Batch of 2 targets.
Target 1
Amino acid sequence: MVATDLTAPAGAPRGAGLPVIGGGGDASGLADMLQQFIEQTVADSPRKLQRARALRGRALFCSAEDERVRVCIDFAGDHIEVRDVLDELTQVPTVTADFLTVAHLTSGHESPFALLARRKLKARCSAGQALFLLRMLRFLQLESEARRTEWLQRICWAALALGAAGVAAWYVS
Amino acid sequence: MSVIYSEAWYEDMKRLINGSDQLGKLAPKVRIAFTLEVMGDGLSPYVPAGGGLYFLLVIEDGKVVEFRPLGERHDGKGLNFRFTAPATIWEAVAAGTEDPIKCGLRGTIKVRGDMKFLMENADAVKLAIDLYGHQGNTDWPLGRPPYQPRA
């Protein structure tokens, strides 16, 4: 289903209980679209709202089509800020992808792991930031797809735990 | 060849989009209504500076059922998307000299609407704008982009 109302002025808050702050009229298109996407996501899903409140950290989204377009998403708990970045940001986990890849990721047409493996999605982060980056990418996936990814991850973890328990049992015996 | 923004041009565009089998398969089956807002920027000879041209497009079941100019800006009721850009940008896209995706990412084309839907149907959107940008069937009686600044 596609939402059918554009009567509110651009940038008007949607009353989700979690402000998503953007750069206004001066924002790049990527920043503007990501801001609208996140705002609509948390407004439409209490589960996503809860997840967004639990996330803490920053990530940089870089456009593969235009290296000047770089957007930082800052999850602060009580708000999210989406802004263009002009300076070099170090120590911030970074994702670089083209528009279609971002769309395929958020819509769940492709998993982040598959996109990373095919180098369609390039990620740069420290080991400590990897979990945040993964949680953020999962937050950005549409509800149904995020759930599927989550279930797959749970199954993988369960299989891993079972395997480890089996190996431990075999070793002890 | 049809003159840009003429009645024949809208019909050509409609035929072009409806003639694409690939788009017919990729496009969502729901009804989507959106406007293209072409804002006069003082460079385009087709849109007066400070003025604007507004087009309504309705796609249903993967086919364009309506493509017509509006007398004024749409109030937004029942609208799914609004694409706004200076005339120079729209015309450069139609002439195939600007990449609409890059324009969208930079923000020279402003997009308002249901972003979740846009992301889910990005392949169809990309195909539609590629058709628009590579049709090569537009006549430019007052000159084609890129335009030189007017004195």
Target 2
Amino acid sequence: MSYEVIGITVLWVFLYGYLIVASVDFGAGFFSYYTKRTNKNHIIHDIIQRYLSPVWEVTNVFLVFFFIGIVGFFPQTAFYYGSALLIPGSVAIILIAIRGSYYAFATYGAKESRFFTFLYGATGLLIPASLTTVLTISEGGYISYEDGHVQLLYGELFGSLYSWGVVILAIVSVLFISASFLTYYASRAQDKGALELLRKYALIWSFPSIIMGVIVFFLLGGRNPEHFSNMVDLWWMFAISFLAFAAATYLIWKRRNYGTAFMMVMLQYFAAFFGYGVSHFPYLLYPYLTIYDGFTNETMAIALISAFIGGLLMLIPSLYFLMKLFLFDADYVQGKK
Amino acid sequence: MFEYDPVLYSRLLTSLTLGFHAIFATLGVGIPLMIAIAEWMGIKRNDPHYTLMARRWARGFVVIVAVGVVTGTAIGLQLSLLWPNFMQAAGHTIGLPMFMEVFAFFFEAIFLGIYLYTWDRFKSKMKHFLLIIPIVIGATASAFFITTVNSFMNVPQGFEIIDGAIRDVSPLAAMFNPATPTKISHVIITCYLTAAFVLGAIAAFNLLKGRNHVYHKKALHLTMVSAAIFAIGTAVIGDFSGKYLHEYQPEKLAAAEWHFETESEAPLILGGILTEDNEVRYALEIPYALSILAGNTPDTVVTGLNDFPEELHPPLWVHYMFDLMVFIGMYLAAISALFVFMNWMKKWNAFRRPVLWAIFAGGPLAIVAIEAGWIFAEVGRQPWIINGVMTVAEGATASPHVDIMLYVFILLYAVLGATCIAVLRRMFKSNPAEHELEERGIAHTKEQNVN
Ligand code: HDD
Ligand code: HEM
Ligand code: HEM
């Protein structure tokens, strides 16, 4: 494998990691708010708190890892995306800032407040919507590049069906991933009430997520035919994704093996996300930037990859320790600790 | 008002975000060490007061870290949004430490999550103490890595520019440049100093309010002993930083000292104003001191600003920033040493109101010194963003709307800052130390003298 491919694979894996952990977090925020409105919050509040409190910071680091890593491996992305994304990027920063700090304020600091919960719920849906802008503009046609100046074409972005399709797909996916994880967590906690409610949410959001996936797939055909035909060539990855989805929904429906069901949801998104990514290859930004012309120098690439391996050797045992204490420790999950 | 200039607004927005982040980041690096010291003392002396101290500090720390994390995320993204050309060059040369910084955060974040939720989960107290060590290391390592990036901006090396393209990159040479040793050690030790003083100021405040429990006295003593050590370290390393500047960035030192003519036996200038034709008025002059700061001997020749072309002069107002930082440094060293000394003389009462007031003032002043130090270091590098390689104007974005973003972020930080203070106050007011001591049944243990 060339360094370019290693670099983009590492980054894509981390982005996938962020997609999963952040979705759980974002969706939890929304469910927490929604149940508060409908006076069901007491049912799932503890589950959500107990899982989220120790891990929210870790979630954020996945994102930081991605955007620092991409500038390290592909410095030219800083130029194109940095110049184009001033406003959407700043919007995302503001939402993340509000969400992270108000979560900490509410959890560690003050009494529960309706307003904090509202911020927490609303940002949970708005952040994925704003972050997906990056994937949308990577398809090309949303940016103009003239005399060395990069500009985002807002009319094009807001007027395009494809970009709205991606936004909706992101939101429903967040809710589905989150509900299926929390269902599993509630079943581990043997919390019947929470389990029932969360299982219902998982089922409600399952079909919208797959339908939006299919719609976006075809909308892309109109947007970027080259990418679309690459995706069609990789049809089997999307088939795997669909089968995993079917298996997950079936298990949740049958009230069985919630753990396996969540693994299937992860597989569903893994296959779709990598199918999308591989077919996007080699472009980082259609049609201006590929991974080959945007790549850093060879020495830096070797240094980054070594640092990455060293970092993983340090992180994996620590992450395992964290999960062992908070995710797999039955007593903790059940609130006995 | 002025014409829209993306460079100007990018600078303002960067200063705003960094200035805000620096407060939380500095405390975020320093407080874990203080928590570790307190928890250690609690175990070694078998004194639950110190353990409670560690617990209470840790609770405040989470809120501060949260703001540190979100503002750090903001600056990390903003660097690409506001300085795309700079980041493109930086990615090629100094991407490695930025990347490693993220691992340091990651490491810290994982153990912080564990530390906070496991106070009573292990049988052995020592096990829980061990969990703070990776947090201290992670926090300090993130300061280390990010400061190497800043060092590189001051003394860029480890690459060649051939036909406008960056070649022959050596990431380690870029990281370990001549600015690195003094910069890193000064930044890290001032993080510790600031954290010690801010926590000391809180203890002093409680004592001033008439809460006379030994808990607060122990907290004050612990923080002031640490602060005295860190303050002396800061002054010594600050002196080395002066020598570094003399060697590698003489124009920054000259601007800080309004030093125009290259000469030996140069005096150090404190305060004062500069007239139209660069005459220094009303300043306090310490003879030979600048030469000594630059090279340890009075006959060291210090380069003056007149040796540099006018367009490369940094703004001369950084003089005040430098003075402010040094003055506060001396103040913090003096007051913490005084307290420790008075407490050591058994017959004296170190807990007098004037002393407590002076310590209380030290908390905010330490933060002012951090800001002044950064402004001096960054503005003193003007007009360069990467010293001698890329100017600030070349590094900046050309996007429209940076001005609107500036206003939006001012609003955001105002709201965040205000809520953060309100939350911290409510947190400790609704659950004062006395109350918690009572609750845990340790209000009357170990009433012996503090030492
Ligand atoms: C509590 C904060 C604090 C205190 C009391 C001091 N400093 Fe400082 N100083 C900093 C906080 C700081 C800083 C924020 O950490 C800086 C900004 C950039 C940097 O590298 O460190 C800094 C930079 C800085 C520089 C510029 C280095 C550069 O541009 O590379 C010099 C020469 C000094 N300091 C010297 C001193 C001296 C002689 C002090 C006397 C006691 C002193 N500082 C106290
Ligand atoms: C001396 C200066 C700085 C120090 C001491 C410092 C230290 C810190 C600390 C302690 C945190 C909290 C992280 C945690 O507790 O997990 C933090 C967050 C962060 N900082 Fe800074 N920082 C400094 C300047 C910068 C600059 C200039 C950048 C921009 C590249 C930056 C980028 C970040 C990022 C991206 C985060 C968020 C990381 C996360 O999500 O955990 N920092 N910083
Ligand atoms: C917490 C640590 C830091 C603080 C508080 C800080 C502070 C500042 C301040 C106050 C300015 C404004 C200078 C002016 O308006 O003239 C500035 C400029 C800047 N800093 Fe730093 N700085 C820090 C570290 C860094 C690091 C590590 C980087 C790079 C990764 C960086 C990148 C920049 C850039 C790109 C500018 C704009 C160019 C300029 O005006 O010089 N800073 N910083």
